[in-house]
Amino acid sequence: MSPLKAVAPDGTFTTGPDTTERLLTPGEVARVFGVDPKTVNRWALTGRIPSVRTPSNQRRYRQSDIDALLNPSP
Amino acid sequence: MSPLKAVAPDGTFTTGPDTTERLLTPGEVARVFGVDPKTVNRWALTGRIPSVRTPSNQRRYRQSDIDALLNPSP
DNA sequence: CATTATTAGGGTAATTCGGGAT
DNA sequence: CCTGTCCGAATTACCCTAATAA
Description:
Two copies of one chain form a homodimer. In chain A, 34% of the residues lie in helices and 11% in strands. Chain A is α+β, with helices and mostly antiparallel strands. In chain A, β2 (52-53) and β3 form a beta hairpin. The first copy, chain A, is globular and about 35 Å long. Chain A starts with 22 loop residues before the first strand and ends with a helix. The A-B interface holds A 2-4, 15-17, 19, 22-25, 52, 54-56, 60 and B 19-20, 22, 24, 28-29, 31-35, 43, 48-49, 63, 66-67, 69-71. Chain A binds a DNA duplex through α2. Chains A, B: Residues 23-70 form the HTH merR-type domain. Chains A, B: InterPro entries: BldC-like, DNA-bd_dom_put_sf, HTH_17, MerR-type_HTH_dom. Chains A, B: It comes from Streptosporangium jomthongense. Chains A, B: This is BldC family transcriptional regulator.
């Protein structure tokens, strides 16, 4: 199964990648938690947060992962 | 082999275009990695991603290439 | 044919990376 | 153990106009 899903927010089926899963930059995540962007990256290095790497080795963080940290065991 | 059919691991095949070789626009790839579409084109220029050119010089990216970047030799 | 969105370019400011010292 | 800061180098975002796509 491809990681590039094709279900639109309204439930319709569209061909193409899943655009519903937003990716956040280190700076954006840093603002959420009120810490330095480098601290966010250290969390990734120590395995506290999952991260996605761009082809140029920059880190991106899934919105769902951040939401999970903000809402533990709902 | 023809790009117009997909052969599953069990030997069956599906009719229609090969979805693993679908071409993605710069904007679609950009949303996958959470970057600007221009950045995706820069990846192509610097050889980080293979790209296909339309007759009008626009860039397209093979979904299989994008999948490979997200799942580096598992 | 007209309209709207996307893309290709280039130029510049901002962000990110990694290491290392504090 | 965890965090914020300094550094240089690399990477990216946003600005614009013209061309292409739907």
